[in-house]
Amino acid sequence: MKIIKVINNNTVCVLDDKRREQIISGKGIGFGKKFGDRPDADKIEKMYLITDSALRKRLIECLAEIPYEYIKLTEGLAEQAAKELDCELNESLMISLSDHIYFAVQRKQQGIEFENPLMEAISDYFPKELELGRRCVDEVKRQMGVQLAPDEAGFAAMHIINARMGTKMSQITDITKFVESCAALADTCFGGKLDKNSVAYERFLVHLKFLAKRLFTVQELPQVLSRDEDLLELMIVKFKRQYKCAECIQDHILKNYKKSISEEELLTLTLHLRRISA
């Protein structure tokens, strides 16, 4: 493994033994080093193997511009988030979250705070991500001595949601509002009697989140149900009230988001509604 670029005292680019470009961070790992040197193994704290060249460039810029203590803080938070959510998070989280935390602290020191208009919706529909966002705020207080506003937990949660779903940050607002409005419509259809503490309701919300992701990222909706017409007709008759509610959600999506969903998706919604309204 040899250094091909020293970014700063704490970050270097290397070619590993398989001639893959990696980014290595660690306190003082770049100090006094030059092209062709080997990094000190005992100083390596984190290695990034990023195949996407654009993302790698952004990470290098992030590591070069943001103080190392913020990078270290964010690395720990990103690892904790992946463990808590039991999933692989997009590599962009390291970039977006460290950048956000750094400038949030700077804004706080200048007396500037932002309100997050999606806090209530994030709390209702992305509670795990919001809890991780609150831990981010707690860690900033513990490690940096800066108390960020509570709404910053919501902004941190949005970065985690983005990394979990593989969407663009600009789409998270649309997805959150989509889930909120569809869930509220379902609740209205059943007179506010849905069991929102049930596992079935949590699965319904997860389905809405990924439906929103597919719609807003223009992904083809998978056909998960058979096209057996007799079976479809039976479901429509047997679960008439739930199917009617699914149609209301379909109309809502078309009217407010200019997106259409298939008959298969309509019936999938019907099944979810059946489970949470039984």
Keywords:
alpha+beta; elongated; 11 helices; four-stranded antiparallel beta sheet; 7% strand; 278 residues; 62% helix
Give the secondary structure arrangement, pairings included.
Layout: E1 2-8, E2 11-15, E3 21-25, E4 46-48, H1 53-65, H2 68-85, H3 92-109, H4 119-125, H5 127-144, H6 151-165, H7 169-189, H8 199-216, H9 229-238, H10 240-257, H11 263-277
Antiparallel strand pairs: 1-2, 2-3, 3-4
Helix pairs in contact: 1-3, 2-3, 2-5, 3-6, 4-5, 4-7, 5-6, 6-7, 7-8, 7-10, 8-11, 10-11
Description:
- Helices cover 62% and strands 7% of the residues.
- It has eleven helices and four strands.
- The chain has helices at 53-65, 68-85, 92-109, 119-125, 127-144, 151-165, 169-189, 199-216, 229-238, 240-257, 263-277; strands at 2-8, 11-15, 21-25, 46-48.
- The chain has a four-stranded antiparallel beta sheet.
- Helix 1 (53-65) runs parallel beside helix 3, helix 2 crosses helix 3 (92-109) and helix 4 (119-125) packs across helix 7.
- The chain is elongated, with a radius of gyration of 23 Å.
- The model is unreliable at 221-227 (pLDDT under 50).
Which structural category do the helix and sheet elements fall into?
A: alpha+beta
**Can you tell me the overall shape?**
elongated
Rg value: 23 Å
Mean pLDDT score:
87
Beta-strand share of residues = 5-15%
Helix percentage: 55-70%
The largest β sheet comes out as: 4 strands, antiparallel
Strand count: 4
Query: Termini distance?
Result: 60 Å
Order of helices and strands: EEEEHHHHHHHHHHH
The number of distinct helices, counting runs of at least 4 residues, comes to: 11
Strand order of the largest sheet: 1-2-3-4
- Uncertain residue ranges: 221-227
